[in-house]
Write a structure and sequence with these properties.
heterodimer; A: about 325 residues; mainly alpha; globular; B: about 190 residues; alpha+beta; five-stranded antiparallel beta sheet; two-stranded antiparallel sheet; 6 helices; 9 strands; about 30% helix
């Protein structure tokens, strides 16, 4: 395998991962291969991602330089925005960024294998699509479709979705997907190893784009492990509660997902890429009960100011 | 936007509608007193018990048992708290485990199914955890194959960056929305 081929493969798979993060667009039935999903996101036993009260430690971040992550981030965002343009409403975009940045002030930063904190540049956007979907990139861009936003009932629900995507980015799910399986698909590829110069801004744009979109398409179909989604759900609730929101926001969204008709094409992508909403609800219930018992069962919902924004989105979508 | 309308079983008994209205008003007032935040617009909603469960006086496992609830029993959800939902079942009101109930807002091609059909449909849905793959068509922008057909838009990425707000703006936004930061550990609620 030539150095160039290896480079393309690496870029492709990196971004493939980015797509998974998109998290929300990933498949429920993805095989739990290799080291087994059960230990990754479970409490206490994880060797890859450790949730401690002090800091989330995500060793996979050490595999990529911040510059590589930024590059992938921009490429991935460009592909998303090429398919679904920004909703042309600055007031709506501003509102979603305010909710997101307030969450960002609460989530902290995960650290890599060496304990170095990983900085995220959080950015948020509403994109034009009727599909009920949300995405995240490895570097901290979060997208929500107008089709999903206008089906929500409150700011607490919006915060829960943004927090779920932020959790995917902070867990390094995209990058982990690259390590776990991505390289297996490349003929002749050796152990991943450190990414010395594998991805750099000087790469030919055409080569990069082709590799990026190909890899994104691949991951888009294959998707994240269900455990990654369950873990992101739990973190989302914790982040939302930290930010002062009622803990039920995510559960209400999941009830809405579960109630949507199987014939509704707007939910097809979501169903294809996520564990069943009813299963997610069941997995979430113990945490909600714990929070209620810990005196954190209430919080802000902010339905009124959300409704103003939602009405704008509905008007924009006509 | 929430599809569907309240199911017929409540509204058919229109003579008791005033009582329902009063109960809902009381519930909303009670909620407002507890949390000082408005209820989300779509509540109350029609739900049904997915499994046999207990209606309790408080959202706690050791709270007084009000009545047993059979699978498929229709109810209206008034609010959620913790892992619990406050519901009204016929003329009783209490709390059931959130994971024991299911929404019965089922739409087929934009038409809300009658409650009976919804129950039948739910019964089959709840027997399996797995999802049935559905062809991804018809959704603007995110149709099947959207990634490969996308024409990457770097300018839109820069425009997106322009929508960001500062930490100070975010704090002001939170203050206006009465959002108060709280401490929750990353492993809160996980098994020890």
């Amino acid at each position: 395998m030539t150095a160039r081929a290896r480079f393309i493969a690496r870029v492709a798979l990196c971004v493939a991962a980015a797509c998974t993060v998109a998290g929300c667009e990933t498949v429920s039935q993805a095989a739990s291969s290799g080291e087994g999903a059960s230990g990754y996101y479970g409490a206490g036993t994880s060797t890859r991602v450790s949730h401690t009260p002090a800091q989330l430690r995500v060793p996979v971040f050490s595999t990529f330089t911040p510059q590589e992550r930024d590059l992938l981030d921009s490429e991935f965002a460009a592909v998303i925005l090429g398919a679904c343009p920004l909703l042309p409403d600055a007031q709506v975009q501003h509102y979603v960024n305010q909710v997101g940045q307030w969450l960002a002030l609460q989530v902290g930063s995960p650290s890599d294998a060496h304990g170095r904190p990983m900085a995220f540049q959080w950015r948020f956007a509403v994109i034009v699509s009727d599909a009920a979907s949300s995405f995240a990139t490895p570097g901290g861009r979060v997208f929500i479709t107008a089709g999903l936003l206008r089906r929500l009932a409150s700011e607490a629900e919006l915060a829960a979705i943004l927090a779920h995507e932020m959790a995917h980015a902070m867990q390094g799910d995209a990058l982990l997907a690259v390590q776990q399986g991505g390289f297996m698909h490349v003929e002749g590829a050796q152990e991943p190893g450190p990414a010395h110069g594998a991805v750099h801004a000087g790469s030919p744009a055409g080569v990069l784009r082709t590799a990026v979109t190909g890899a994104m398409q691949h991951i888009y179909v294959q998707g994240l492990e269900p455990d990654a989604e369950f873990a992101a759900d739990r973190q989302a609730v914790r982040y939302a509660v930290r930010a002062g929101y009622a803990p039920e926001g995510l559960a209400q969204v999941l009830h809405m997902f579960a109630a949507a008709s199987e014939q509704n094409a707007d939910f097809a992508l979501l169903r294809q890429t996520h564990p069943d909403a009813r299963v997610r609800l069941r997995r979430l219930a113990p945490l909600l009960e714990y929070l209620a018992g810990a005196g954190l069962g209430v919080g802000a919902v902010n339905a009124a100011r959300f409704t103003v924004v939602r009405n704008r989105v509905m008007a924009d979508s006509r | 936007m929430w599809p569907g309308t309240p199911d017929g079983s409540i509204w058919r008994h229109w003579r008791s509608a005033w009582l329902v209205a009063w109960l809902l008003l009381l519930a909303v007032v009670a909620q407002a007193q507890v949390t000082a935040s408005p209820l989300p617009a779509p509540l109350p909603q029609p739900y049904a018990a997915a499994v046999a469960t207990d209606l309790r006086a408080q959202p706690m496992l050791d709270a007084a048992l009000l009545q047993r609830v059979a699978p498929g029993q229709q109810m209206q959800m008034l609010q959620m708290r913790g892992g619990w939902a406050q519901v009204r079942v016929e003329h009783a009101q209490g709390w059931v485990r959130l994971s024991h109930i299911r929404s019965v807002q089922v739409q087929v091609q934009g038409r809300t199914l009658p409650a009976q059909d919804a129950n039948t449909r739910l019964a089959s849905l709840f027997t399996a955890d797995s999802t049935t793959p559905v062809a991804t068509t018809g959704a603007r922008g995110l149709f099947k194959g959207w990634v490969t057909s996308s024409r990457p838009d770097a300018q839109a990425v820069r425009q997106m960056d322009g929508y960001t707000v500062s930490a100070a703006q975010a704090r002001e936004f939170a203050r206006a929305g009465q959002l108060q930061a709280r401490s929750v550990a990353d492993d809160a609620g996980d098994a020890p």
